[in-house]
Amino acid sequence: MIIYRDLISGDEMFSDAFKVKESENGIFFEVEGKTVTRTEGFDDSLIAANASAEEATEGNESSTISGVDIVLNHKLQETGFDKKQYMTYIKDYVKAVKAKLQETKPDRVESFMADIQPEVKKILGNIKNYQFFTGESMNPEGMVGLLDYREDGITPFMLFFKDGLEIEKLTTWNYICCSPDCCFQNGLQSRLEEHYLASCLNRNIVQFLKYSHYGPQNRSQTWGVNQT
Q1: Which pLDDT does position 40 carry in this prediction?
Q2: How far apart are CA 55 and CA 45, in angstroms?
Q3: Which fold has domain 2-35+71-169?
Q4: Among candidates 179, 147, 182, which has minimal Cα distance to 67?
Q5: Which terminal CB of the chain, N or C, has fewer other CB atoms within 10 Å?
Q6: What is the value of pTM for the model shown?
Q7: Residue 197's beta-bridge partner residues?
Q8: Which residues does the UniProt record annotate as the domain TCTP (predicted)?
């Protein structure tokens, strides 16, 4: 799996779980998503077989959230710009990316500076069409992704500056899951460092999984569950 991170903030912006294509001039990655509604939360009673009825009810609390899956999966944060504000932001951002390229890919600097100017003009000319999203940390110096919709008015897609991204390749990992999209809905693809519960009722166990791409190994601990 590949995670695309903001070169400046380090925030993850999207992954190869989505349909990704590069623009003809190599300035953007275009990432296609979809609008979804998800239920968040899990049943704590699976962990404590002897929990009281009141505790079980509290443990079953859940909520629904709707939005574009790219945004939800990677915890992108919406921000806003008018034309003047975006011009101020993009000038500083282009300078920051240029400085990074001069350090890492000096041969890329000239074409980047030449190709990004007409793209910025297009963005400014259609500024009202876009929604703007930063990474989770909301670093004001980091990348701002642009959200727009196809001509059908239904299909969302996002634009990210290719040269402002770094690639992180994650190793393969295993997990027990209670449904095909359970781990997808809980953001397990992109939040491997956090804790998740996944139940496998036919084996009468609940496995607590702690995934970490910072450490050399994944860890797991299993408890028996009394199913009645």
Answers
A1: 75
A2: 8
A3: 2.170.150
A4: 147
A5: C
A6: 0.70
A7: 208
A8: 1-170
How far apart (Å, rounded) are the C-alpha atoms in residues 65 and 54? 25
Quick one: pLDDT at residue 129? 96
Reply yes or no on whether the pLDDT at 17 is more than 90: yes
* pLDDT at residue 50, as a whole number: 54
Which residue did the predictor score with more confidence, 21 or 202?
Answer: 21
